[in-house]
Batch of 3 targets.
Target 1
Amino acid sequence: MIVHEAALSGGFGAEIAAILAEHCLFGLLAPVRRVAGYDTVMPLAQLERHYMPSRERILEAAREVLRYT
């Protein structure tokens, strides 16, 4: 699972996921799951809380990955 604050597509986490898929695909026990900001322009400061990965989104992604084990 990769968590980062940038947009989901084209961000640092997307690059890490691509490297994992390229080099470790057959060794992974579960698919790579990314939790990131949305693919949109970074909002104003008062809306930043809704853009950033929340605790709930991170926990849901962790549960999803753990279902594979």
Note: The radius of gyration is 13 Å.
Target 2
Amino acid sequence: MTTSSVDLAGELARGTESAPPGPPAPVGPDRRGGGPLRRGVERGMAATLAVAALLFVLLALPTWAADHHAVAPALLVLSLALAGSMVAALPLALLRHPGPVRTGLWLPVVAYVGLLVVEPFTLRDALPAGSTPWLLGLSLIAFSCTAVAEPSPVRAAAICTGLDLALACVYAGRSTATHTLVDLIGLGLLAGALVLGVRALRTSADRADDVERRARLLVERHERRVATEAERSHTDAVLHDTVLAALLAAAAGGASGRAAAMARSSLDILAAPDDRPSAARPTLTFGEAVSAAEGELSAFRGLARLDLAPARDVRLPHDVADALVGAAVQALSNSVRHAGGASARADVGRAGVARAAVAVPLAGGGMRVTVSDDGVGFDTAGVPAERLGVRVSVLERMAAAGGTADVVSAPGEGTVVTLEWRPGTAGSRPARRPGRDLLELIPRRRLYQALGALILVAVLAASLDALIVTRAYGSVVASLLGLLILPTLLRGARAGTMSDAAAWGTTAVSCLLCAVATIGLDPATFDCVSIARYTCGVLAGAVMGWMAGRRGPPLVAVGVLVVQIAVWAGPYGVLRLGLAAEIVIVVAGLLMHRAVRRVSAAADVAARTHHALTTTHAELDAFHAEGRRRLRHARRTAAPVLQRIVDAAGELDEAARAECRMLEQALRDEIRGRGLLNDAVRATVSAHRRRGALVQVLDDGGLDDIAPADLDGLLDDVARHLEPVRSSRIVVRSGGPDSDTAVTVVALTTDETAAALGLDVDDEVDLWVTIPRPGTAGGEPTRRRGGPA
């Protein structure tokens, strides 16, 4: 039965009284400003602002000093204090609590408003023609802080528009109308781009947080389903190997001592405490697991060659060790019971059948156990579905532990059962958390492609400028050097790694490029726009080296670039030509990337912790809801009969043996037809078996997603159809998961006279009922009587 996906958090919280508290609810968007990725992105933007704001203030100071001469010292101090507070307040935005974060972003905006108020009193003369107001650069800080601090894009755009208009009013009359209008429109467009860009980042982060939250819910459902199926397989194997085997041995008669011993062992298992320790079970060696099962393995000494020592030191998870030993014991038991043919059933372990159990470690971890015999063998394709020995105790038991089991046999050719487990097999739980790939807001592929395109554009622009305008061929040589190292940079950025030789080789070429790029050029004829083709190209290459995992070589290249510009254009040229601004923008971008990486790493840790808690709780919840319930049912129904077998030392009369057969079949139904059983069906099936009918109840998983109330009514309907039947053979079977049929009930009668004469005749169909799934079209049961099967 698959766990319902409705209100999974509520399911985890309910549990049973003895179950430990469930894992915390998945982290998702909350009222404090979004999920973890969104908060990390906002912290990254705040870190970027903290670096960029300092640059803008420093770049604005020379203009401020030139425009604010002969001003009262008090106003100068106030103006500088307000500008400094725009930078000093931003570190508050890097704190983890939402209050200081918002305060740290809004304080620069308030300080900027203060500067707009003070500026008319400090600026007495008109600005020189073509000059840029010093508050123009600081407006970018205010716009950015507003875009990050205000969640609503509409309100953020309105605030930025108001600041833009206020700036235009402050400088109206002190600058030309054309210049003021251009600044107004340009700042408005820049503010809009900032608001839209921040909104896009938030939307992407919120989408990733939402996908992460939904993925965690899916993980919880998956873990509960896996844990439930594992618990079912474990319980099925325990019941089959102990209780059912004891009942069959008692019903067969003959080996009374063996039946009593098996019944006593079954009672011990059913009487074991219900509660499992809440802590994760430790690993153990295969040898320790074998020693713990020595009582079961000792029954095969002399009947089989046990060569388990070679793998005794292999360390295994507890459930894997249990599964390997339990499946091997069941395979040996099947061999002892069946390998010698029908004559061997009364005298198990018939001489002449060679059987062995061999364990070997595997390269890379894990181990393999092979149980083989040279007995009569069997047709694996012809094993009926209701036979549980191989399917439940071997195949499903190993699958639930994340291992594999393979049974190879043919009539007259013996049987080989291979049990294998390797670390990290399909049964292992995924280590990578769901939604992890969505954390890359800017895919690496697009980023290195954009940087490569930027370098190509820079090379083309520098070459055309050198050939047509400046005729300085050093730029052409620098362009060719840039093209030479571009493929290496692209490969490194794409792969995320670069060899030492490649990293330092490209750095050496970058340094040579810096040395020759400005040969023959006059720094006075360049400004921050015209020189950007050179500086941006070198910085883009450094970023690609950083993406390739290198740290030293890109820093060396940027250092050489700064020294070369300072030597060529003077120290002030580093600021005038915009190199300092470009470096700060690059550093800010790397800080943004680092912040997202850090929050992603923190989210990974939280996800692994959540996953571990979910897994532990799911296992305990599955035990309490599935394993303990079924063991209690088996204890309630089988314990009195098992105790009777023990008290009688296995010597039972015919009525008691018939009761054992009935109980064994009822418990088999709990394993093979669990979804088809309620009290009404159990009572009806028991009544038919007592009158001598052969009844098979087979659940193929098609009822797992039907609501409990609907399922109970459907099963009551099955019981009503079964009650009047008097056929000798009855089959009740659920439909498949994709079928519109919920349950099929078939009642057959064999012509015993024809069968006794050896005639080949079909069974007569007394009843054939198909009950549709609730909610499907044509929702009435269809009945057919008469005719051959």
Note: The first strand starts at residue 284 and ends at 285.
Target 3
Amino acid sequence: MVAPPRFLQELRGSVRLAVDGVKGVTNIVEAVHGSVARVAPVLGAANEKPLGGIAGLVYRSISGTTGLVGIGLDRALDAVELVLQAVPRARGAAGSDETIAPQRDAIVSALNGVLGDHLERTGNPLAITAQLLRRSPPGPRPLLLVHGLCMNEQQWTRNGHDHGQALASSLGCNPFYLRYNTGRHVSANGASLAACLEATFLDWPVPVESFAIIGHSMGGLVARSAVHQAIAAGMAWPRLLRRLVFLGTPHHGAPLERVGNWLHRGLGISPYAAPFARLSGLRSAGITDLRHGNVVEADWAASRFRLRDTRAVTPLPPGVACFALAGSLGRAGSRSWQSDGLVSVQSALGKHARRARELGIPASRTWVATGVHHLDLLSSQAVYRKLRLWLKT
């Protein structure tokens, strides 16, 4: 018998956890299977059309004959394995393990965003462990890129563009990337990143001239947390940091999380994550940190579901040039100008109705990219040109 593909083995355990107690799980599995079967791009609109042929018949039969979540899911995944095993596949063909890897990683990353804290607590092997990944040799101008919720380092490449690689070509930066479990608290991921960077720079083979970090969305909060905790712990690497750039970071929270819609709007951007948007009642610690923009443990220690913003002010690191870039869906002055679809312009720029809570980033170091969605911050050429200008000197 042909061994089941690796992504299905992992999907069996992960999706079962994600849909614990949720009705209609077979539809979720079918949607994920359909995206994988069509080899959909990692980012883009979801196409959740029911599967046809034998696979579709199997899923509809399971949906109609079982009301037990666990049994139904296991049977669904058994059916997927049988269907795929019955179809001969050439090595490297669409749907093979070789070509499915980015899609499989997107599924695992989405699951970690939704239930990563639970995966970690229960010792599930699908819980992502923080790690720094290089795509080029280390050099004197290291540039760290930190991704956002439910994503991974591969998704810095969007529409054929990667800010890190582009800056490497134009400015001689040496990009490396963080992969982390976005369902954990921001403060926990900040502590992990701080420790990873301390170990990394102890072994950096060349003298560091200038170290910079770019954080997208939640990644900006994780970067702030890492610097803050590293300075408090007396680590050495913050002394190398010269620039900290935030792309669409919800410094003061994201309204969509407060109404429980972050998953519906945020996960809908990927055909692999979209099915899990149906589980919006299952919000991880990382997602609830986006309610107010929690950075340190004290921000959520009393209750991670607290409606009032009781955070203490966590200042930006001294001696580091900080920049904030926001996206907006419309022109200045219009109602749609206020947000990139997920994060408000005010929150992304670190501004707040209460002056004491403002991050104090100078206006000369802030910028609003008009007509740019939250995810398009990763591929916008206007955003890239601004990054190149800010990181040039």
Note: The first strand starts at residue 131 and ends at 134.
